[in-house]
Amino acid sequence: MEPIVIIGAGLAGCEAAWQIAGRGGKVILYEMKPEAYSSAHRSPFFAELVCSNSLKSESLGNAPGVLKEELGRLESLVLKVAKETRVPAGDSLAVDREVFSKQITRILESLDNVKVIRKEVTSIPQDRITIIATGPLTSEVLGKEIQNVTGSRHLFFYDAISPIVAADSINFQRAFKSSRYGKGGQDYVNCPMDEESYNQFVHALNQAERVPIRPFEKRYLFEGCLPVEEMAERGRETLAFGPLKPVGLIDPKTGKQPFAVVQLRQEDRFKTLFNLVGFQTRLKHEEQKRVFRMIPGLEKAEFVRLGSIHRNTFIDSPRLLGESLRLKSLPNLFFAGQITGVEGYMESTAMGLLSGINAHRYANGMPALIPPPTTAMGALVHYITHSLAVPFQPMNINFGLFPSLSGKGRGRQKRLLFAERALRDLEEWKKRNDV
Fold this sequence. Notes:
The protein is of the alpha/beta class and 435 residues long. The protein is built from 12 helices and 16 strands. Helix content is 32%, strand content 16%. It folds into 2 domains: 4-154 and 315-433, FAD/NAD(P)-binding domain (3-Layer(bba) Sandwich), CATH 3.50.50; 161-305, Elongation Factor Tu (Ef-tu), domain 3. α2 packs parallel to α12 (411-433).
């Protein structure tokens, strides 16, 4: 049997390759790096994490935690390696991104039934089973090829990257270490603001010069990942109720809750780098240095990486894809990852896992497997293949995508009921289908 072709060795492509190989299938995995790089990628290794190093909460009281639990029960490579390369981040799963990428690369390159070809793909093979997992930064050439194959126009939105600072440049005379409500120990660095310094900071954000978006590029900003300056424009207190919310944090120097708090999260195992949580931005680089050094504790911050903005690409999945993630008009072609319209690292991984399983089953004449919509993975698949929104927009996993539990519980109790149902239904689905 011919190998399944996978285009792209990001999170989704790597997970798809792992799932196929683990079922005895053969894979040809194409990765254009280091022959060519996108505007945001820098590393030659697979599964490069471009934005944050956090894979979000592991708590079953949160939808991302339920998704991780499901992925773990389906033997996800990405989740396994993430846990092996984790760094402290409270109840969230964060990784040393370089070690993480190197380990996934090493594992896949060592598999006998996975052939890696380091070459940019410019045309889609239509005579063999292929998974397109080129992600939100699909090259222009391949993007046009996808347009030709799908007969559909692409949609675009802009996803911003947070800055990273050197740990030894943080002023701990002003900043302090703590997690909200004391959960997770001292995993975050917190930069407290009083009302005056907060107002000055918001004013500076609103006045700062931004990188312009070119006229021919239609502007879609994903609501779940808005640039900090975009949020500041929405009102003076927007940031104080958003990424700068102070709840659950007490400044040990005053014994009080600050008016606002900028949090920094550990980037690497050696605690030498920290990123500004929720500080995605498209400010010009010199403006970032000027404005972000107004944050108490970052007066002399050394910026190892400055924020930037890049184009993300995704297809109109509700019109194009079936629930198996196979293209309706071309049965040999599957899509995986963020290009399907999910947003987030683990969401992308989940779509790679399902696409890999279903491509392998299709190659062997077996029916597709679609998780129940009561599970996190099933809820995501249902959203991207059945959304009625026009234009279709990407989505993170959240309990709002799950079928309702009307009349049962409230708050955290209800969230745990969602989790309990999801995991019960996943186990029944696995058992019924011998997954």
